[in-house]
Structure formats: structure tokens, C-alpha cells
Specification:
Layout: H1 2-11, H2 20-59, E1 76-83, E2 86-93, E3 96-104, H3 110-119, E4 122-132, E5 135-144, H4 152-173
Antiparallel strand pairs: 1-2, 2-3, 3-5, 4-5
Helix pairs in contact: 1-2, 3-4
Length: 174
Amino acid sequence: MNDKFKDLIKLIPNPTKNDQATILADAIDYINELQRTVAELNCLAEKKRNAKEKRLKSTKIEPDDAGHEDGVALRTSRLHKKFKNIEIDVRIIDDEVTVKLVQQKKINCLVHVSKVLDELHLDLHHVAGAVIGDYHSFLFNSKICEGSVVYATALANKLIEAVDQQYAATKSSC
């Protein structure tokens, strides 16, 4: 039984404690979070599909067998990255960007991340945040501005760099 709990704790990002009750509670919370993320992404993809279908009907362009309109595919990318005290999940679907950032509670990086999104010409639509145990968790929903090109890897690296610089500045001022 203990081996199964050890395996389970390895699957949970940022577990709070090692007792069995907390491991199960963390696992349930994580599963619920994953289910919400899946539902959110399914809803977002469905909205995109419906918008494209509506656009196709109004312009009389029929999608090909792969769902492309005139050979243009729906742009999607996803990246999950961990670095020191930071965990970032970036999802791009067409022109919408969702960033989930989890960091240790030493600093609040909300302003710094918002500045990075602005520098990359991302139009911030929604921000949600929470404190879970010793961690800050933020969710940023934004749109890629017309003419801007953003890749998940570049965005994640830029965010990690900004938060890491803030950690360094905090340590040096102490």
C-alpha cells in the first residue's frame, strides 16, 4: 500500500504533506483541476470550431477532410515547463493563449507576468489567482494581437526569465 502512495505522490505537482489523507486530498484536487482544464480547453476548441464553421458558411468556403479551410490549419501548441520554483503551462489555440503559472509563495509575480504579456503584444482578457498551501497559482487568458507571432516555448521561457529575475532581486534585497 505504501508503494502505491509513493507512486501517487510522484504524480501530484507540489504536494503539501506526505501523510496519506493529504496525499489523497491533493490527488483529488489535482484531478479536479485537470478535469476543469480539459473542460475549458474543450469549450474553447468548440467555440473556435463553431466560429470557423460560421465564417465558412458566410463565405461559402468548405473545409477539406482534415478540417482545414483553404489548407490553413487551426494553430495549436502546448508546453509544460518546470524551472526551479516555477511551473508554467502555456496553451495556444488559434489566437487565444492560456498561461497557468504556479510558483512558491516567496514573491507575487502577477505584475511581472502581466508586463511580459504586454511586451509580447498579448491582449490580457482575464486573470485568476489563488494561494494553495505554499504556492501562488495564476491563470492568464489572453489573445494574440493582430500581426503578432507568439510561440509557446518563447512565451514560457520569457515568463520563467522574468519570474527568476524577480526571485534574484528579492534575494539580493534581503
